[in-house]
Amino acid sequence: MAKLWGGRFQKSTDQKVDDFNSSIRFDARMYRQDIRGSIAHAQMLGRQGIIPQEDAEQIVEGLNGILADIEAGKVAFEIDAEDIHMNIEKILIERIGEAGKRLHTGRSRNDQVALDLRMYLMDEIAEIDGMLKDTLEALLSLAEKHTETVMPGYTHLQKAQPVTFAHHLMAYFEMFRRDRGRLADCRKRMDSMPLGSGALAGTTYPLDREFVAEQLGFSGITRNSLDGVSDRDFVIELASCLSMVMMHLSRFSEELILWSSHEFAFVEMDDAYSTGSSIMPQKKNPDVAELIRGKTGRVYGHLMGLLTTMKGIPLAYNKDMQEDKEPIFDAVDTVKLCLPVFREMLLTMTVKKERMLKGAKGGFTNATDLADYLVKKGLPFREAHAVVGRMVFYAIEHEKDLDAFSMEEFAKFSDIIAEDIYDAISMETCVNGRNLPGGPAKEAVEKAIAEGKAYLSR
């Protein structure tokens, strides 16, 4: 098949090269954006008198027909036509003849690709943002039910201080909230229209770049033609943002995997979000959470691959940059696959409140509150810290919790401890006494939930 760019060549490319060079297998997904961009370009060419107005109208009509046929499954793309851009142009010429050959006036595939990719990823960011919002709503819904569900908080995976499950959930609310902000910020830098950059040096045709940008919904145009065709910062930045989303999904998934084990037993995954063993009939495996954790490495790999691909490319466009699409497309697909299933896994799991409370009571999570009690009674903190450390050692030796000490046992360590110690180091007091903004107290968490709802409603 004759190539649209084949005038300078005396022989056809090898079939293996056609297969190697072609990107239609993965860039076909950008057909809507390619057609939208071509329609805006054609309208501008006609408006500027660069091509006859009737040709521009014929091109627009032909492109709309191609779009309808693609979405109806009536179009088969060809590997020989290399990519989605050449496929659509080839089909257009076949359908409308000479007028179709005028579409590429004042345009290069370099700026066409940059345009389509920006438009496609901006659309995908909007979809992922909606999924993140759904995830945040799920976290709020679950948190509202567990403002009094006490559980151990950890540092170094060692029991540290008691918190509530709602407080724990709201920590992830803040992480995913920042993820939305990062994506929105990334989209702002993506929101520049590159068409008109040409191959690298613009064009002598009197293009109206601002008109095209306005037609396509961009807030502005790229300011440098070399940068317009060779920039893939926006792809790498999006891959970074998606890696952060996956990192947060993975961290929470790791906790759910631990918590659903027999050793923790804080939660139980719903049957619909678990799998069994082919040999061990008792098993209920948290495979969904494990897959999310595993797929995180996949997205990280795409980020590193993109950085490596771009690190040594001189200006402007080089064919290496075709390798930008598969990684970012797969990263987008992976995040879109994980977010909905993660949300439903959360909403369907069983939270074992009594087991969480028992976990909080073990491991001396109220030791800090005992030290604070002594400080409030007049003991310097460092001395109080040492006293409580000796009490914990005693408790370990005698296999008992701090709140199970008798007054006689407390007296062995300090004569300023009174009967009010039991209330001071109860789980409820330990949690609700921390009523600072951002703290785990019920009142503080309820305020955080209310603020979260207000944020989502904006």
TrEMBL record:
Residues 364-432 form the Argininosuccinate lyase C-terminal domain. PANTHER family: ARGININOSUCCINATE LYASE. It is found in: Cytoplasm. It comes from Candidatus Avimonoglobus intestinipullorum. GO terms for molecular function: argininosuccinate lyase activity. It catalyses: 2-(N(omega)-L-arginino)succinate = fumarate + L-arginine. Keywords: Amino-acid biosynthesis, Arginine biosynthesis, Cytoplasm, Lyase. CDD domains: Argininosuccinate_lyase. The keyword Magnesium does not apply. This is Argininosuccinate lyase. In the N-terminal section; belongs to the lyase 1 family. Argininosuccinate lyase subfamily. Coiled coil: none annotated.
